[in-house]
Amino acid sequence: MLNSIFFGGGTPSLMEPETVAAVIEAARSHWQFANDIEITLEANPTSVEMGRFRGFADAGVNRLSMGVQALNDADLAKLGRMHSVAEARAAFDIARACFDRISFDLIYARQDQSREDWRRELSEALSMAADHLSLYQLTIEPGTAFGARHAKGGLKGLPDDDNAADMYLETQDICAAAGMPAYEVSNHAAKGAESRHNLIYWRQGDWAAVGPGRTAA
Fold first, then answer.
1. Side by side, which strands form the sheet with 63-69?
2. In angstroms, rounded to a whole number, what is the distance separating the alpha carbons of residues 17 and 21?
3. Top CATH class, 2-201
4. 3-state secondary structure of 207
5. Where are the domains of the chain?
């Protein structure tokens, strides 16, 4: 029984809705679908992707996860995002009209972000959120663009470990008080709105990964 399909990795919302529909039908030909199957697609709030939202819903997607990342334009630019806060809000409004369930992502512990800055932004996000938020602490990993920039001293103003830890703890308290407690490390949801796909991973359930790839010789 197939309980969840998750279109993620890269930017799956750049696919045409007809392609998404074809993948869903291919999955249906191999597995029996649960009556309440959760079909999530990740998207960015750019005008190109917004224009496809209704088509994705018609194709069978019933949950959208948007990569908003920040609610101020200066930090979006620092994160290398291609959208503005105004576009993110417009995309969220369109998504609410198209999908029963919506989540969006934010990144915290960003450059020059104080705990008070994050509290205000998180409160704003909670006022927008439908039923789910993914809240990720910025981490700098080697082998990434941010890792290379950090190694060259290009990421000034990152919070120290103690401040980042305090932001994490405050995030848990604020979200819980708002009725969206954490159900795993970075994901918060109203009761019954937890991502089924996330829970399958978290509980070590069975899953199948499908997509283009290559192997080294």
1. 2-7, 33-43, 63-69, 101-108, 132-137, 187-189
2. 6
3. alpha beta
4. coil
5. 2-201
Strands 187-189 and 132-137, by their bridges, are antiparallel
pTM for this entry: 0.89
The count of residues in the chain is 217
Other beta carbons within 10 Å of 148: 12
Neighbour-count burial for 12-23, b at 16+ CB within 10 Å, e otherwise? bbebebeebbeb
Handedness of CA 106, 109, 115, 116 (dihedral sign): negative
Name every residue whose Cβ is closer than 8 Å to that of residue 78 and which is 6 or more positions away in sequence.
110, 111
How confident is residue 51, by pLDDT bands cut at 50, 70 and 90? confident
Q: What digits encode the pLDDT tens for the residues 118-173? A: 999 999 999 987 789 999 998 776 666 665 565 556 667 788 899 999 999 999 99
Q: Which DSSP symbol is given to 182? A: B
